[in-house]
Write a structure and sequence with these properties.
- The chain is of the alpha+beta class and about 200 residues long.
- About 55% of the residues lie in helices and about 5% in strands.
- Helix 1 packs parallel to helix 3 and helix 1 packs across helix 6.
- The longest helix has 29 residues.
Amino acid sequence: MKLYFNPASPYVRKVRVTAHELGLDGRIELISISLTPVNPHEALRSSNPIGKIPTLITDDGAALYDSPVICEYLDSLAGGNRIFPTTGPARWTALRRQALADGIMDAAVLMRYEEAARPKELRWQNWIDGQLLKVRTVLDALEGENLDGAFDIGTISIACALGYLDLRFASESWRATRPRLATWTAAIGKRPSLAGTTPAVS
């Protein structure tokens, strides 16, 4: 398998953590690319018409994209029901948490693009503030969750989303008012799959 990736992407990190936890990371060749909404990657677009990462090329040549799809595919390769609970409340909790975490990632990546890709004179502060409000609201919701004991696509996604905030928005200092979430993050971050995929500031 081949994975189009960039180490800074929280969506890619979610896939890499999942692959590591399932023992599949050794079967995936990483293809590092750089792209933004205004600087597309043509080779990637030939496999994924959306032109986004992560994109996984399976052993039979099929292209899978969007991190939830790729992660569930990897889970199925490993026998299923390991990262994605199969049925019942555990499944819906895991998927709901994944959606919350992906919401943080979506808003944070949009803020990053606004700051890094849009000309300064065209930046819209009210729009940035709206994205930041989403991030803060989800963080407050996660502070009220009992995340202890669960390790699935939901908690993997949350850990990767928080890691992206640390990478790109350290000044947000989200831990200061969310001690329960901060303690959980410190503990889960010691897992080799997360520790080994922590992106460096660039």
